[in-house]
Amino acid sequence: MRRYGPGAVVLALLCAAALVSREPGDTQRLHHASRSEKAGWIFVHLEGSPADLGYQHGYLLAPEIRDAQRVIEVLLGHDTSQDWEFFRTAARDMLWPKVPAEYREELQGMSEGLAAHGVKLDTLDLTVLNAWMELSPYWFKWHQAQQGKTARLVPPEHCSAFVATGSYTRDGRPVLGHNLWSGYAEGSRWNIVFDIHPKDGNRILMDGFPGLIHSASDFGINSAGIMIAETTISRFSGFDPNGIPEFVRARKAMQYAASIDDFARIMEEGNNGGYANNWLVADRKTKEIASLELGLKNVTLQRTMDGYFVGSNFPVNEKLAREETDFPTKDNSESANARHARWEQLMSESKGQIDVVRGQSFLSDHYDSFEHKTDPDERTLCGHIDLSPRGAKPWEPPFGPAGATQAKVTDATMAEAMSLSAAMGHACGIGFKAAHHLSKHRDLIWQGGILRDLESHPWTDFKALP
Q1: How many angstroms separate the CA atoms of 443 and 377, rounded?
Q2: Within a domain: residue 155?
C-alpha cells in the first residue's frame, strides 16, 4: 500500500508545478481556445474536434490537472488503502473498453496537451480521474465483495438542487439551481466553467473539475435547450461492471440530448449503477421539467409542465430506497430528509416567485428544519459539515472540511443565451481556513498536503463566447 505523508504530498504538488514548461503548445490546435479567471472561477473555452478539445483542455489547465490528480490519488488511497496503479488496472480492464472512440480521442488529446507542458498523465490516468467517483465507493465495494471482503464505504452526499416551472416560477419558464457538496480538498478545485463548442453535438456550458470531460457535479446547459443538475442517492449500493461508465453517459447526455426523452435514454442505456443520482432536467423550449432517479434496478422518470422537483440526496422511489439503499427514510434528523423538508417549505412559500435571485437565496439557506432554527450545519441547504471523528459540529468558524463548495443557478432566458450565474465557495459567504481547522483536528493531518483555503466569492454571471 502506498502511504501518503503530508510532506510527501506537498513535495509532489510543488514538483507538479515545476513540471509546467515554457514551451509553446500546438498553436493551430489552440487557435480557438482561451482561458480567463474571474471571482474564483477559471473560465475555459474549448472548440473543435474531440482530439482538439482534449488538447486545449490539457494544455490550458495543465497545472490544475496535475494538482487535481494528486489530490484524487490521496483521497482514493486514504479511502480504499489502494494505490493509483490498482485503479489504473480497473480503468484498463473495465472502463477503457467501453469508452467510445470520440471520448478516447478527447482523453488522448488531453494527455498530449499535458505533455506539451511537461505533465505526464496517460489515458488510463485520465480515465481514473474521470471515473473516480464511480470507482469509489461503487465499483470498489463490488470488487471487494467478489473477493469475499467488505468495504465499509458509503457514497458521500453530493448536492442540493431544485428545478421549477409553470405557476411556480416568476415567468412560467424553468429555473434550475444546484450547489455541490464535497470535501474542501476537492471542492476548492471544482472551480472550472467549461464553454465547450464540439465539432459534433450541442454547445455546452457547465461547471467542472480539472481533467474531467464531464461536469461530475453535473450542472450544465446545452444549446439544444436542455438544463441539467443532479444530487446523489444516499447510501446506495450496486454496480454492474459490464455497464457503460457513468462519466461517459453524463458527458454524452450533456452533449447530445435535445429533449428530456433523449436525456433519459442516454443515461439509462448501459447504466452501470456508478455514481447513482437523481437527475433534475428542464427543456427550456417546451417548459417541461423532469426528475430521473437512476438506480441500478429501479429507474423512475417523473415529468411536469407545472410544478417542481427537488433533490437533497434522499431516495424518491420507495422501492428503490428499500431494495438499493439502507437509507433511513423515517429519520427526520438525517441531512437528506431535513433538507428535503426545507425544500418543500421553500417551494410552497415561493410559488409564483421563483427566479434566479430567489434560487440564489435558496442555495445560501441556513435554516435547519429538524431543529427549527437558523443554524448552518449538515441539515441546511448551504451545508457545513465536519468529517472528523470528533463530531459533526465543531461550532467554531469556519466549520469544515466539507460542505457546499460552490453553487450555480440559471433560468430559461439565461440558458437560451448560454449563460449561468455561479458562486465559488459557500454561497452564504462563510469562508474556510485550512490551517486553522487542521490545528484543531489533528486526525485530519493526512489532508495536510491537499487541504487548502476555500474563499467565498460573489455570484457572477458566465456566458459562452460568441
Answers
A1: 21
A2: no
Q: Which residue in this structure is represented by grid cell 439509462?
A: 268
Contact call for residues 71 and 108 (beta carbons, < 8 A): no
Query: How is residue 388 annotated by DSSP?
Result: S
* Per-residue cell: 90: 480497473
Q: Please state, in angstroms and as integers, the Cα–Cα distance from residue 157 to each residue in 149, 244, 415, following that order.
A: 24, 23, 27
What's the grid cell of residue 265?
A: 435514454
Furthest-apart CA atoms within the chain: distance in Å: 59
Whole-structure pTM value: 0.92
Name the residue among 369, 406, 383 with its Cα closest to residue 177.
406
DSSP code string of 202-242: --EEEEE-TT-SS-SS--EEETTSEEEEEEEPTTB----TT
Alpha-carbon gap, residue 39 to 327, rounded angstroms: 37
Measured CA to CA in angstroms, residue 272 lies from 214, 260, 368 at distances of 16, 20, 35
Structure confidence by residue, pLDDT tens digits, 371-404: 999 999 999 999 998 655 444 443 344 456 899 9
Strand order in the sheet with 192-198: 34-38, 41-48, 192-198, 204-208, 220-222, 226-232, 277-283, 288-294, 299-304
DSSP 332: T
The pLDDT tens digits for 199-244 are 999 999 999 999 999 999 999 999 999 999 999 999 999 999 999 9
Give me the CATH number covering residue 416. Answer: 3.60.60.20
Q: Quick one: pLDDT at residue 158?
A: 81
Residue 153 lies in a domain: no
Tell me how far apart the terminal alpha carbons of the chain are, to the nearest angstrom: 49
For the chain (length 466 residues), average pLDDT per consecutive 10? 36 40 71 97 98 98 98 96 98 98 98 97 98 97 95 84 98 98 96 98 98 98 98 96 98 98 98 97 98 98 98 97 96 96 98 98 98 95 74 45 96 98 97 88 88 96 97
| H or E stretch at 6 | helix 6-18
Q: Is 178 exposed, middle or buried (0-12, 13-18, 19+ CB in 10 A)?
A: buried
| Residue 72 domain boundaries | 6-146
Instruction: Answer yes or no: do 180 and 292 share one domain.
Output: yes
